[in-house]
C-alpha cells in the first residue's frame, strides 16, 4: 500500500530488530529528525553555493555585455572617423592645384623619389587636411575661453539649441560628418598639468605633484607646468598628430559628440573643432584667424558640451532615457537602484533660478588661487594663494590690481581657506601651517590681531558659526578644531576622521556641523552635545561639500568626479555625473534653490537643488580649485590653477 523506504532509517543496522516500544519509537523518530535536519543543512549549503555561482555568472554576463557594448561603440567610432576623413579629403581636393591629383596628395607621384617616403608624405598630407579643416570651421577669435557654455538642460533628452547652418557652406558639410565617441581616459592625464589638488597620505590614483618645501600629508597643492613643458616640440616641428585638443581622440583629432542611439550632433562636433583652435600651433592659429576674417561668419554657439558622457561602471540600460541623450542625473533609492531623473517642468524657471552667468572680471593674483571669498555687501573679493591673501575692489571693473595684500603663514605655503565673519570686519585665514591668522579689516591698513596655534600641521577648510563666536577648522590629522574667537582659545576637538578632514559646512541655525574627509566619509556633528550624529561612507575621497541653507539636503563633491546630493534624514539621494575629474569645491546659493561645483576638468557647473538639473556651465582655461557665491546670489567668484580668479555676474 505504501512504497518501501518511504521513511528511511539510515541509522538502523541490518538485522537489528525494530523498536516498537514508545521510548524506542521516540528514539527512532528523533534519529529520523536528525537525519532530515542533516539533509536540510546539506541542501541549504548547496543552495547557497548555487546562488553565489549564479551571482558570479550574472557579474560576468554584465562585464561581457559592457565589453561588447564598448567594442560596438568603438567600431562605430572608427567607421565614422573614416567617413569624416573621406569628407575632409573631398573638401581638400578642390583647394589643390590642378596638376596635383588625389593620389599625389596621399602617396606622391608614381615612380618618383617621394613615393619611396610615402609615410612622411602622408604626414604632410594630413597636416594639409587638418589645416584646411580648421580654416573652414569659423571661430570668433575675440570670444573669451571662459564664457559659459549652454548646458545639457534635459536629463537624457536632447534639448540643445540647434545651429542654423548654411547648407552650402563648407562648415555645414564638415559638421554633418560628426561621429560618436566614448569619454577618453587621456582627458584626466592631460589635465594633470596640475593645480593644487587634494591628496591623501595614502597612495591614490592621482598624480598631483606637491609645491613648496612643505611635507605636510593630506591636501597638497601642485604647481602648474610652464608652457614650455607642455609643448615638447617646437611648433614648426609638430605634425597634426601632435596637436592637442580639448577632447582627445584617434590621431590626436577632436572626436565628435553623439547621443545614446548614435545620432549625429553636427553642432557639437563643429564647436569642438572651433574650441580646438585654442590649442593649435601658431601657424595654424593665424591661418584660422585669417579664414575667419575672410569668411566673416558668426561664431558657432549653442551645443551640448557633454553628450559623450557615460557613467563609469553603469549598465548601458541606465545611461539614458530611451530615444534621448545620455542622462547625467540619477536618483538612487534605498535599495541602491539607480534611475535617470525626469526633471519637472519648473526645473529651470521661476524666481531665484538663474538663466546663465556672465564673466565680468578677471583678477590676476599671480599664484595659484586655492581660496576665495566675497564680502557682504558685494564689494571686495579675497583671493588666497601662496603665502598671502589679496583684496580686490570689484565695484570698479577697471581695477586690475589689488587694493591690499595680507601676508599670511609662511611665504612658500598655500592658503587653503579664508572666511569673513558676517560683519565683514574680520577675516580668518588657514592653510599649510599650524596657525590660523585673524585679520582686523576695520583699520585703515588691515593687520593681524591674533593667531591661533593648532597641533596639526595644516588646515584645509574653515567654517564660522552664525553668531560669529566660534570658528571650526578642518585639520590634516583628521580632527575638527573648535576655536573660541572671543578668548582666542581651543575649546574642543571633534575626533572621528581617520585621514585629513578636507571640507566643512555648518547649518544656518548653528546646531549641526558637516565634515568630509580623505577617509571616504562624511560625518555630521551635534554642536550642542558635542558628539557625532551620522556617518556616510563612500568609495571615493571627499573633496568638497555644502549644506543647503533652506532644506535637508547635503551636496558632496568627490575625487571620483561624482556629485552626490544626500537627504540628511532619508536614505535616498541623487548622483550627478557632468564633471569629468575630481570635484574640488562646492557652494550653495543663499536662497538654497541652486548650487555650484568646480573641478579639475576646468568646469564651473550650476545645478538645481536637489535633483541636479544643469542650469549653466562655464569652461575655464585651467582647474577650478575654489568658489564662493555672494550673499545676494548675484555674483560667483572662482579661483583657478592659472593664477587668477574670475568674477561672474549671475543673470536671472
TrEMBL record:
<dbReference type="GO" id="GO:0005667">
    <property type="term" value="C:transcription regulator complex"/>
</dbReference>
<dbReference type="GO" id="GO:0090090">
    <property type="term" value="P:negative regulation of canonical Wnt signaling pathway"/>
</dbReference>
<comment type="function">
    <text>Transcriptional corepressor that binds to a number of transcription factors. Inhibits the transcriptional activation mediated by CTNNB1 and TCF family members in Wnt signaling. The effects of full-length TLE family members may be modulated by association with dominant-negative AES.</text>
</comment>
<feature type="repeat" description="WD">
    <location>
        <begin position="494"/>
        <end position="535"/>
    </location>
</feature>
<dbReference type="GO" id="GO:0003714">
    <property type="term" value="F:transcription corepressor activity"/>
</dbReference>
<keyword id="KW-0677">Repeat</keyword>
<feature type="domain" description="Groucho/TLE N-terminal Q-rich">
    <location>
        <begin position="18"/>
        <end position="100"/>
    </location>
</feature>
<feature type="region of interest" description="Disordered">
    <location>
        <begin position="164"/>
        <end position="241"/>
    </location>
</feature>
<dbReference type="Pfam" id="PF00400">
    <property type="entry name" value="WD40"/>
</dbReference>
<feature type="region of interest" description="Disordered">
    <location>
        <begin position="137"/>
        <end position="156"/>
    </location>
</feature>
<feature type="compositionally biased region" description="Low complexity">
    <location>
        <begin position="169"/>
        <end position="182"/>
    </location>
</feature>
<comment type="similarity">
    <text>Belongs to the WD repeat Groucho/TLE family.</text>
</comment>
<dbReference type="Pfam" id="PF03920">
    <property type="entry name" value="TLE_N"/>
</dbReference>
<dbReference type="InterPro" id="IPR036322">
    <property type="entry name" value="WD40_repeat_dom_sf"/>
</dbReference>
<dbReference type="GO" id="GO:0005634">
    <property type="term" value="C:nucleus"/>
</dbReference>
<feature type="compositionally biased region" description="Basic and acidic residues">
    <location>
        <begin position="183"/>
        <end position="193"/>
    </location>
</feature>
<dbReference type="InterPro" id="IPR019775">
    <property type="entry name" value="WD40_repeat_CS"/>
</dbReference>
<dbReference type="InterPro" id="IPR015943">
    <property type="entry name" value="WD40/YVTN_repeat-like_dom_sf"/>
</dbReference>
<feature type="coiled-coil region">
    <location>
        <begin position="26"/>
        <end position="53"/>
    </location>
</feature>
<dbReference type="InterPro" id="IPR005617">
    <property type="entry name" value="Groucho/TLE_N"/>
</dbReference>
<dbReference type="InterPro" id="IPR009146">
    <property type="entry name" value="Groucho_enhance"/>
</dbReference>
<feature type="compositionally biased region" description="Pro residues">
    <location>
        <begin position="232"/>
        <end position="241"/>
    </location>
</feature>
<keyword id="KW-0539">Nucleus</keyword>
<keyword id="KW-0853">WD repeat</keyword>
<protein>
    <submittedName>
        <fullName>Transducin-like enhancer protein 1</fullName>
    </submittedName>
</protein>
<keyword id="KW-0175">Coiled coil</keyword>
<dbReference type="InterPro" id="IPR001680">
    <property type="entry name" value="WD40_rpt"/>
</dbReference>
<feature type="repeat" description="WD">
    <location>
        <begin position="452"/>
        <end position="493"/>
    </location>
</feature>
Amino acid at each position: 500500500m505504501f512504497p518501501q523506504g518511504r521513511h528511511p532509517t539510515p541509522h538502523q543496522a541490518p538485522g537489528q530488530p525494530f523498536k516498537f516500544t514508545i521510548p524506542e519509537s521516540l528514539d527512532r523518530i528523533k534519529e529520523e529528525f536528525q537525519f532530515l535536519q542533516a539533509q536540510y543543512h546539506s541542501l541549504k549549503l548547496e543552495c547557497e553555493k548555487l546562488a553565489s555561482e549564479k551571482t558570479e555568472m550574472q557579474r560576468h554576463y554584465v562585464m561581457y555585455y559592457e565589453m561588447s557594448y564598448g567594442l560596438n561603440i568603438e567600431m562605430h567610432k572608427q567607421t565614422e572617423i573614416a567617413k569624416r576623413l573621406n569628407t575632409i579629403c573631398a573638401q581638400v581636393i578642390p583647394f589643390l592645384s590642378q596638376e596635383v591629383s588625389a593620389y599625389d596628395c596621399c602617396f606622391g607621384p608614381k615612380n618618383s623619389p617621394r613615393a619611396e617616403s610615402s609615410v612622411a608624405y602622408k604626414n604632410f598630407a594630413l597636416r594639409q587636411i587638418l589645416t584646411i579643416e580648421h580654416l573652414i570651421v569659423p571661430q570668433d577669435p575675440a570670444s573669451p575661453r571662459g564664457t559659459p557654455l549652454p548646458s545639457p538642460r534635459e536629463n537624457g533628452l536632447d534639448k540643445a539649441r540647434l545651429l542654423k547652418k548654411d547648407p552650402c557652406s563648407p562648415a555645414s558639410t564638415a559638421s554633418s560628418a560628426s561621429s560618436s565617441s566614448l569619454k577618453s581616459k587621456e582627458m584626466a592625464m592631460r589635465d594633470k598639468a596640475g593645480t593644487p589638488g587634494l591628496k591623501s597620505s595614502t597612495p591614490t590614483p592621482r598624480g598631483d605633484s606637491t609645491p613648496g618645501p612643505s611635507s605636510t600629508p593630506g591636501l597638497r597643492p601642485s604647481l602648474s607646468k610652464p608652457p614650455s613643458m607642455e609643448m615638447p616640440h617646437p611648433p614648426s616641428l609638430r605634425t597634426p598628430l601632435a596637436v592637442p585638443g580639448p577632447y582627445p581622440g584617434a590621431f590626436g583629432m577632436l572626436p565628435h559628440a553623439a547621443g545614446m542611439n548614435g545620432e549625429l550632433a553636427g553642432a557639437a562636433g563643429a564647436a569642438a573643432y572651433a574650441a580646438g583652435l585654442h590649442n593649435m600651433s601658431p601657424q595654424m592659429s593665424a591661418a584660422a584667424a585669417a579664414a575667419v576674417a575672410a569668411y566673416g561668419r558668426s561664431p558657432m554657439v549653442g551645443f551640448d558640451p557633454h553628450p559623450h558622457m557615460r557613467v563609469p561602471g553603469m549598465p548601458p540600460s541606465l545611461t539614458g532615457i530611451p530615444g534621448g541623450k545620455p542622462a547625467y542625473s540619477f536618483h538612487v533609492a534605498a535599495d541602491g537602484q539607480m534611475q535617470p531623473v525626469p526633471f519637472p517642468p519648473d526645473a529651470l524657471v521661476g524666481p531665484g533660478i538663474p538663466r546663465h552667468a556672465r564673466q565680468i572680471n578677471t583678477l590676476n593674483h599671480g599664484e595659484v588661487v586655492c581660496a576665495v571669498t566675497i564680502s557682504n555687501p558685494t564689494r571686495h573679493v579675497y583671493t588666497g594663494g601662496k603665502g598671502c591673501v589679496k583684496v580686490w575692489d570689484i565695484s570698479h571693473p577697471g581695477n586690475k590690481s589689488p587694493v591690499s595684500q595680507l601676508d599670511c603663514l609662511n611665504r612658500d605655503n598655500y592658503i587653503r581657506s579664508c572666511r569673513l565673519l558676517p560683519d565683514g570686519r574680520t577675516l580668518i585665514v588657514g592653510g599649510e601651517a599650524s596657525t590660523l591668522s585673524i585679520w582686523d579689516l576695520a583699520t585703515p591698513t588691515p593687520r593681524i590681531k591674533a593667531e591661533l596655534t593648532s597641533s596639526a600641521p595644516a588646515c584645509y577648510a574653515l567654517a564660522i558659526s552664525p553668531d560669529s563666536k566660534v570658528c571650526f577648522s578642518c585639520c590634516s590629522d583628521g580632527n575638527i578644531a573648535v576655536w573660541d574667537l572671543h578668548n582666542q582659545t581651543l575649546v574642543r576637538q571633534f575626533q572621528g576622521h581617520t585621514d585629513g578632514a578636507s571640507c566643512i559646512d555648518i547649518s544656518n541655525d548653528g546646531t549641526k556641523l558637516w565634515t568630509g574627509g580623505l577617509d571616504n566619509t562624511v560625518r555630521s556633528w551635534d554642536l550642542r552635545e558635542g558628539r557625532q550624529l551620522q556617518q556616510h561612507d563612500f568609495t571615493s575621497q571627499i573633496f568638497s561639500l555644502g549644506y543647503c541653507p533652506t532644506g535637508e539636503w547635503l551636496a558632496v563633491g568627490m575625487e571620483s568626479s561624482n556629485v552626490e546630493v544626500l537627504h540628511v534624514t532619508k536614505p535616498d539621494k541623487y548622483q550627478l555625473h557632468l564633471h569629468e575629474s575630481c570635484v574640488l569645491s562646492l557652494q550653495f546659493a543663499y536662497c538654497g534653490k541652486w548650487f555650484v561645483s568646480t573641478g579639475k576638468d576646468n568646469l564651473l557647473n550650476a545645478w538645481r537643488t536637489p535633483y541636479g538639473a544643469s542650469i549653466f556651465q562655464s569652461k575655464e582655461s585651467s582647474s577650478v580649485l575654489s568658489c564662493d557665491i555672494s550673499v545676494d546670489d548675484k555674483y560667483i567668484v572662482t579661483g583657478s590653477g592659472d593664477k587668477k580668479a574670475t568674477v561672474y555676474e549671475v543673470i536671472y
